[in-house]
Amino acid sequence: MEPEFSEKGIVFFPDPFMIGSPADYDLEYKEVFFTTADQVQLHGWWVPHPQDPPILLWLHGNAGNISHRLDNLFWLWQKVGLQIFIFDYREYGRSQGRITREGTYQDAAAAYDYVTVNLGIAPENLILFGRSLGTALAVNLAVHRPCRALIIESAFTSSEDMFRLYAPGVAWRPTVPYDNLGKIGRVPVPKLIIHGVYDEVIPFKMGERLYAAAQPPKFFYPIPEAHHNDTYVMGGTDYFQRLKTFIFEESARGR
Question: Which of 50, 56, 142, 215 is at 20 to 30 A from 191, Cα to Cα?
Fold first, then answer.
């Protein structure tokens, strides 16, 4: 069990208010509701693609909700050519419940189960994509569940390292850790690690450390002008082409 201490407003910044949907970008999509092992109802979107390509299971960062990722979602769908499943953790957007670390792990597992069971997606056609906070959930899934490949962007090494960086004098530590550095070496599938060189939230060196700890096949994509939240903007055309090459060529060779 987690302590009563709440990290909401410190680590988690959920926003219940939706500001749009894929329909705003003229995308066909399905509104999805599914339930976690501890009976929390979550909300997400499935955006299919006419060519039936691999699916990206998107585990987003710690702020806002899925409606704040619509431009990025559209470009991934259009420029990379993927179907996308994106969902909100508990307490984010239209998902119910109260946010906890343990809850985020359960949410990620439930999303994986929905994609593979309800949508019938074979693991070899499933790419795990985590950004920022979501990298911990994506890495954990890649250790325990089969998939085609793992992409992590703006990833931190561990919650312990982040506490040392931002709250060095605080004695409290979470009982349920996020530990990318301790897990990345156990991920067997091809890995693409993306990090903005000027990331002001999660230091670039954390991305370098994760790449060093990962086992082959692995690829590192530094984006010279990018900060924490603008990787896909600053990377531009090259960013989407790099993802496309990894997903359709490099990850296929690595299986």
Answer: 50
d(CA 197, CA 219): 16
Report whether the peptide linkage leading into residue 217 is cis, meaning its omega lies within 30 degrees of zero: yes
Residue 33 CB contacts under 8 Å (≥ 6 apart), including other chains? 41, 42, 43, 44
Is 228 among the residues known to form the active site? yes
Which one of the listed residues 132, 154, 158, 159 is annotated catalytic? 132
Determine how many CB atoms are found less than 10 A away from the CB of residue 240.
17
Give residue 253's pLDDT band: very low, low, confident or very high (50, 70, 90): confident
Q: 3-state class of 176 per DSSP?
A: coil
pLDDT of residue 170: 76
199 belongs to the catalytic site: yes
DSSP string of 113-124, one letter each residue: HIIIIIS---GG
Select which of 88, 107, 161, 199 is catalytic: 199
43 is catalytic: no
Mean pLDDT of the chain, nearest integer:
95
- Give the model confidence (pLDDT) of 109-167 as tens digits: 999 999 999 999 999 999 999 999 999 999 999 999 999 999 999 999 999 999 889 88
13-253, CATH topology level: Rossmann fold (3.40.50)
Q: Which two tokens stand for residue 23?
A: 């329909």
Contact criterion met (CB below 8 Å) for 45 and 86: yes
